[in-house]
Amino acid sequence: MKVKRLVTNAMLIAMYVVLSLFSINLGNMKITLDSFPIIVGAVLFGPLDGLIIGFFGSFLNQLLLFGFTPTTLLWVMPAAVRGLLIGLFAKRHRFSMSFGQTQFITISTALLVTALNTGVMYLDSKIYGYYSFAYVFGAVIPRIFTGILTAFVFGSILPYVVKPVKVFIDRK
Questions:
Q1: pLDDT value, residue 122
Q2: How many CB atoms lie within 10 A of CB 20?
Q3: Of 9, 16, 119, 6, which is closest to residue 65 (Cα–Cα)?
Q4: R_g of the chain, CA atoms, integer Å
Q5: How many CB atoms lie within 10 A of CB 121?
Q6: How far apart are CA 134 and CA 18, in angstroms?
Q7: Residue 28 scores a pLDDT above 80
Q8: Which residues of 45-83 are buried (b: 16+ CB within 10 A; e: fewer)?
Q9: DSSP state of 68
Q10: The Cα angle at residue 149 between residues 95 and 18, in degrees rounded to 5
């Protein structure tokens, strides 16, 4: 079981990296599906796995796109926090969440991640000297809307993805 779990986490990290490379970047707004593997891992295995998938997936993405910079770990934290919180919520509900609970946690963490990413963008812009209020905060409303919409879709399809993966993992 430990090997299957480790391999599943590694595959989810790889999926995160690949999905993040196929994102749509609109200046200070990024439309992506990369958080789905974090959510799947957190719902399957809990907070530690969600944190690991979010951290290492985001870290590898940052390394591939930007190299290691003084703000790399700041940019990695929102994805790690998402995995941790969704995993804690799933564990609290014994890994059996209703549709409403799934929507609640995916949308809540999407809003939190949007706030964290905006905070990181603010810090990054101050450190590197490209700060402008319009750049950092100008697209907050569209980012919130996109985050909620994506989270709703993820929350809706999550049970259909997690159930067969869980059956496969639990098989001997």
A1: 96
A2: 22
A3: 16
A4: 16
A5: 22
A6: 30
A7: no
A8: bbbbbbbbbbbbbbbbbbeeeeeeeebeebbbbbbbbbb
A9: S
A10: 75
| pLDDT tier for residue 148 given thresholds of 50, 70 and 90 | very high
Helix residue ranges, H only, the chain: 2-21, 36-45, 47-66, 72-92, 99-128, 133-137, 140-170
Return all residues near 37 (Cβ < 8 A) that are at least 6 apart: 12, 13, 15, 16, 19, 53, 57
Q: Tokens for 124?
A: 């990054």
Rounded Cα distance between 160 and 166, Å, is 11
Kind plus residue range of the DSSP H or E element containing 25: strand 24-26
Predicted pLDDT at 169: 85
The pair of three-digit structure tokens given for residue 102, joined into one six-digit string: 């799934």
Give the confidence band of 51 by pLDDT, cuts at 50, 70, 90: very high
Instruction: From residue 93, give the alpha-carbon distance in Å to each of 22, 90, 101, 169.
Output: 33, 5, 9, 20
Q: Cα(140)–Cα(135) distance, rounded to whole angstroms?
A: 10
- Extract long-range pairs of 127-133: CB within 8 Å, 24+ residues apart: 127/70, 127/71, 128/71
Question: Which amino acid, residue 135?
Answer: Y
Handedness of CA 118, 64, 31, 153 (dihedral sign): negative
